[in-house]
Amino acid sequence: MAKEFSGEQKLRIVLESIIRNIPKAEQSEKYDISEEEFQTWHDHLIQNGGKIFDSSSQFGSGSKRTKRKMSPLVKFFLIISLLGNLGLITFGLVYIINQDSKKDEWVQDSTNSIDSPINLRNDSAVQNSAQDDIEPSPPKEIPLEVILENGREKPFRLPNEEDDIGNLLASPNSLPAPSLIPPVSITEPANEVSFMGKLYEGRHVVYLLDVGTYVLDGSESVQQFKKLKESLINSIITLSPNSYFNLVLYWNLRDAAALGKTLLKADHENKKYAIDWITSLGDSSESIKSDRNQYYPKELLSFPPAAGIIGPWYGLSTAISYDPDLVFVMAGNVPSYDRSEVPRSHYEGLGKINFDKLQGNQVDHTNINALTRETARKWFYAITPISSLPSSEAEVENMALARLGIASNDSKKAVYQPLAWNRAFENFLSSLEVGFDRIPKTHFIVNLPQHVSWPSSLLNSVKEFAESSRGSFSQNLTLP
Question: How far apart are CA 135 and CA 144, in angstroms?
Fold first, then answer.
């Protein structure tokens, strides 16, 4: 059933289309009406809209009023009311005039009562004349000597030379002692950042999130990534409006994108942009690849890291270029990056690279002796919690050999040449233009699949930098 509109609503719909230049089809779809009906309203307004300014139509039959005659009784009460109001006004005017005359008489009496040499009178004669109700007798003549003597009298005593001039002046009132105004307590702007249940000191913060497809390796990794995004969103929401932040996404070896070219004020609009970007990543490899590069790609950033800086060090170089107080690095299992997505130019500065082994085209068929297997098992038992150990010893051995980069003839698993993470860290340190006293506090949050660890060269360098920057290192905080 079509919706019925009043005349005023039809006028508003047509005027909205005219003023805002909205097409007829779009306006019709917005208000769920047909284009023919909208065109009818529009034509009616154009043809008949000018009539509202016609004086003859303005005062038409609708504006006529029927005149009614007043009854005699109503006229009588109206006359009585007018006469009453007129009488009250007259009484008020008479009362005000009488009050003014009384004031004039009081002033005249006060003037005549001044005892001066010119107005001296015989009080007894005046009283007798008032009592006898006869004309007042002329004033008694006063001798000239008396008048002169009265004129020579001074109303104030002249000061003597011995008088102290300070005694002649009125003693001034003592000035009140000034009271101290209590200091106004000014609330300092928030200088803390909340992240994953902890508070960190700082107002300028950069969030660094690893969004390589390897962060979704397995169902547990997917859950870890979801919880990490929730923690990141909560931290951005709770940022003080006086804070500044930026969000940098990095992946593989030398790919990154940022929310802005500089630090952004933590207002509602910028927070919404960051949250929308994080939410759009989704939980699949396709969604991450399509949405992780939608803001400022690395080509538009003002600080390109030098060659030979890869992985988390590449993202950290970009974050430090914003000169923040805090950096949160959320890293995944970057050594297992998709080598098909990385061009050879990204390996520059890392030394000689065997690209055949790097791409996994060769398989190691060397037999693994029993001592190596036993050593690998003991090492794996030592570093793995009991609750995370596999059920069988054979699985423990396979996981240990895989973690160490050793494959047997049976597994047929490719052996990749490890990257020079030590050299990447050295390149990163040499590219820093400031000392460690000005390096932002960097907190690493590393999420890895179970039974997986970073190469020791990468892990040790990350821990070393976190400690040197007065930051922290934690691993798998999102796991139960």
Answer: 27
pTM of the model: 0.54
Domain ranges of the chain: 1-44, 192-353+420-475, 363-413
Tokens of 133: 């109700």
Q: Which of 62-71, 91-100, 110-119, 155-164 has the highest mean pLDDT?
A: 91-100
Tokens of residue 361, six digits: 């085209």
Question: Of 79-88, 127-136, 451-460, which has the strongest mean pLDDT?
Answer: 451-460
CA distance 54 to 11: 19
Phi, psi of 471 (to 5 degrees): -100, -145
**Span 174-189, average pLDDT:** 64
245 contacts 468 by C-beta, under 8 angstroms:
no
**Domain 192-353+420-475, second-level architecture:** 3-Layer(aba) Sandwich (3.40)
How high is the pLDDT of residue 367? 62
Residues 331 and 315: their CA atoms lie apart, in Å, by 10
How many other CB atoms are found less than 10 A from the CB of residue 211?
Answer: 25
Residue range 388-405, pLDDT digits in tens: 777 778 888 887 887 776
Is residue 111 scored above 70 in pLDDT? no
Segment holding 330, helix H or strand E? strand 326-331
CA distances 432 to 201, 305, 327, 439, 442, Å, are 23, 10, 15, 9, 14
